[in-house]
């Protein structure tokens, strides 16, 4: 019985280093697979960030092209081109103010309470137009600062 037990222990003892080697190889492969998986995730994240950077650079380039003023290298043409938007904006402003003044001076001057005159001159539509214009100009300025990183 001891001989049989000794033979069995000797056989198992001889296979023990090979079993440890197999277990160690399995652990190494598992570790290597985890490292490769992490590397692939890192590479995918890098590619995603690179793609986002490319898209952001394309947006910046597009914005720069859109906001770049058309230049003809002719001084008076470029000056005239730069005044189109402000002249139109001021023209409509003065037209609006002129219409309100016409309405104010054409209103009856007989004991009309000022609050009634005020309510007819400054309506909710006027407040909406005013809020839209002011919000547009200040919003555009804020977005330009954000875009330029200031």
Task: Describe this structure as you would to a colleague.
The chain is an all-alpha fold. It has a domain at 1-68. The protein is built from 4 helices and no strands. The protein has helices at residues 2-67, 75-106, 114-121, 124-148. The longest helix is centred in the N-terminal third of the chain and has 66 residues, at 2-67.
Features:
single chain, mainly alpha, elongated, 150 residues, 0% strand
N-C termini distance: 89 Å
Question: Whole-number average pLDDT?
Answer: 81
Beta-strand portion reads under 5%
Summing up helix and strand content along with how strands pair, one would put the structural category as mainly alpha
Number of helices: 4
Binned, the helix content reads over 70%
Rg over CA atoms: 40 Å
State the low-pLDDT regions, or none.
none
Order of helices and strands: HHHH
């Amino acid at each position: 019985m001891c001989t049989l037990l000794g033979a069995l222990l000797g056989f198992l003892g001889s296979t023990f280093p090979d079993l440890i080697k197999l277990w160690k190889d399995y652990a190494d492969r598992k570790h290597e697979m985890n490292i490769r998986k992490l590397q692939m995730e890192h590479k995918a994240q890098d590619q995603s960030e690179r793609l986002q950077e490319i898209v952001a650079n394309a947006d910046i380039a597009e914005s720069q092209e859109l906001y770049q003023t058309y230049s003809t290298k002719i001084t008076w043409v470029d000056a005239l081109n730069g005044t189109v938007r402000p002249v139109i904006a001021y023209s409509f402003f003065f037209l609006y103010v002129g219409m309100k003044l016409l309405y104010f001076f054409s209103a009856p001057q007989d004991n009309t309470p000022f609050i009634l005159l005020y309510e007819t001159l400054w309506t909710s539509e006027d407040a909406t137009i005013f809020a839209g214009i002011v919000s547009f100009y200040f919003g555009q300025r804020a977005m330009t600062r954000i875009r330029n990183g200031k």
